[in-house]
Amino acid sequence: MSHPTQISAERLGFTLLVAGLLAPVIAHGLWLPLAHGFGSGGDALQLTWAALTIASLNALGRWFRGDWALGLRLSLAGLAAVVLSWGQSLGLAGLGALGAVAMTTGWLFETLPPRLPPAFDGLARRHWGLATLYTLVAFVGLLMTARLSVFIGDPTAVGYQTLPGEPFTEVHSCLTAYVRASGLARQGVDNLYADVWWWGSHGLPPLPEGVENPYRPFHLDNLSYPPTFLLLLWPLAALDGDFLAQRALWFGFNGLFGAFGLWAVARWIGGPAAHRALLLAPLVFGSVPILVTLQIGNFHLAATVLSLLAMVALERGRAATGGALLAMAILSKIAPGLLGVVLLVQRRFREAALAAGFGALLLALALFFFGTDPAWHFVTFALPRLSSGEAFPFMDTPSGIATNMSPFGVPFKLRVLGVETGDPWQVGRVVARVYTVGLVLLAIIAARRSGDRRDQAIRWLALLTLASLQSPFAPGYSTIGLLWATTLLAVEVRRGSGRDAPGPVQRGGRPCAAGRRACWRAGRGGER
Prior knowledge:
Elements: H1 9-38, H2 44-63, H3 68-115, H4 123-126, H5 128-153, H6 167-171, H7 175-187, H8 243-269, H9 275-285, H10 288-296, H11 300-315, H12 319-333, H13 337-345, H14 349-370, H15 373-388, H16 398-403, H17 410-416, H18 424-447, H19 453-468, H20 480-488, H21 516-523
Helix pairs in contact: 1-2, 1-3, 1-5, 1-8, 2-3, 2-5, 8-9, 8-11, 9-20, 11-12, 11-19, 12-14, 13-18, 17-18, 18-19, 19-20
């Protein structure tokens, strides 16, 4: 049957997948924050179904856009049915959230299909087997994302979390530490990193009798971030006292920011096979590492995206934007500082100076808002405890040993396996120092290598992943950069024969017949 449409089924299907992934994120990112002011109503599952229905109706309307009147009638009739069925029970907060979903997904169906590469057209017919497999995997990711959104809206619905049956993730939220630290910094307490402020977190004494946990049902986590990171928590201050609303808003922001980063990097890579990176981006978004990170509210995903967007901006010649983003990433997560080494080795001193300048500005803002105490105690108290592992007292527990991916944790794992290496804390510190030296050397080598945009993005992600393992405790979300880099490898599938392998290239992907170092030098002034 022929449908009057100007876009291919592949373009529309991909846009529907993106809209279906983001619709629950938008709805639940706004529902509880709006309910903070307008009152709550309805339930989380109901809101998720309504958001997915609206996204589907927008797709239907776009599919019949050739018959404009029919498409408009279908969309309006469906939206009216959703409002009549669920609107009253969801209240003003629910209607506001669904209105944002309707506008955002409608905008997606207008703007995204024309911007997709021509390679999308007819792709399902050319590779029907892979298309079927892709659809099945994408559908699972969409269901998992929608299920997680229900848990964000209702933390008692533990069966909807990313890892059902896992008791730790049911009650763990890194955002508790961020919100707690933000409040302590604004109060001006003495040494917000001191253990006395974090009683009740994993590995520390429980809360004193009679003291209520304001983050229930979640347990308090501990903070290991610089005070400049707390500048990002200011939007949540308006929701003080309502942690579930703060958690929902943080989830929505990180989800949308992560999706934007996947899209922006894939578009920047470009090239005749760049559609593969775009196709895999929704699968990455709906994967377990990303969803767990969004669920627990950890900043690692946003820090990775910030770092990649910073380097992309620098490659495009937008030095001020790139410097500001890189400074924020470094002063929030520390590990992205390894990308600063890359800039210095490549003699991009202007970009490095701009990043340092924006870093000084962010530090000045932190000192202005929070005073000198948090910065002083981070350098003199928190940072030594981080490097020694003392800030992670749970690291020597069975669960801590099993989940730690850092080289610092290797002696602990060896002890469990029956291999005695002496005091694992002492040995771990030595291993960490050696790993740091090796990591810097690896960054120097990587900075001197040539390659196209895909190669650069993969190296940045690899360095970020390795840098995140430098922490004495590195849980599973540290693999996000590795997962992302793996999907970028699909941009160029090389045959086994060396004759098919492309030669050296300059920056921007232009072929170069000279050696790697000459190509890299030639590319310094080329396309970025």
